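Section 4.2 – Deliverable D4.2 (structural model, holo form)

The reporting period included a commitment to supply a predicted holo structure for the target in complex with uridine-5'-diphosphate. Inputs used:
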Amino acid sequence: MFKRILLKLSGESLAGKQGYGIDTERLHEYAEQIQAIARKGVQVAIVIGGGNIFRGLSGSKQGYDRVKGDQMGMLATVINALALKSAFDTIAQPSRVLTSISMQPIGEYYSHDKAIRLLEEGTVVILAGGTGSPYFTTDTGSSLRALEIQADVMLKGTRVDGIYTADPEKDPTATKFTEITYDEVIRRGLKVMDQTATVMCKENGMPIYVFNMDTPGNLARVINGEQIGTLVTP
Ligand code: UDP
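Output (structure tokens):
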């Protein structure tokens, strides 16, 4: 069983069926799944994306300055973090928002020591703002924070139940991997995570587990060691 996890939730999954913004039902479902494992003693840090609101790269294609666009994207992750924090508050789950950019009182400025202290206390830590720097993504933010907090695994909760040979939503012949190496993910150009994040996990030996978080109870199944997704290993 994993004791300390870094859970990456993409902004897109928060959008649910709407495809944009925050699907409140989905948000609460996630909060409940996370609370269920936190109550079993798993230390949970969450990195949340912002793609349901704004992405710097798409912004720059529409004429926005890239750095400004990325900063807008990072602020989008903060909006999602506050929504998730609010969902935790309604179910009395202790949680705290730490931001990679100083913006008190919206969240406290991230520090490694603070994050560890909160995790050890049983508080769910929501890490907002990605890395705090442009030209990165929240996938990279996740690999960075997973390593910093010495997580046992980086869990990537998506709407697909693992890594496939091709996008299963587009290619019906795509088959799923139970296990795959970092090199194979990179060689095949699989879009499970961006390559910077994959390489960072590879170089530092951080296992990645990709699973479908949209089925209630799946997070607990992964924690209990059920093989419902894909493990990325050396
Ligand atoms: N972003 C950034 N630096 C980071 C993390 C995020 O500049 O360290 C910006 C970037 O523009 C990105 C946006 O924030 O497109 C939203 O994050 P991401 O695309 O990773 O969200 P997700 O795909 O997980 O919803």
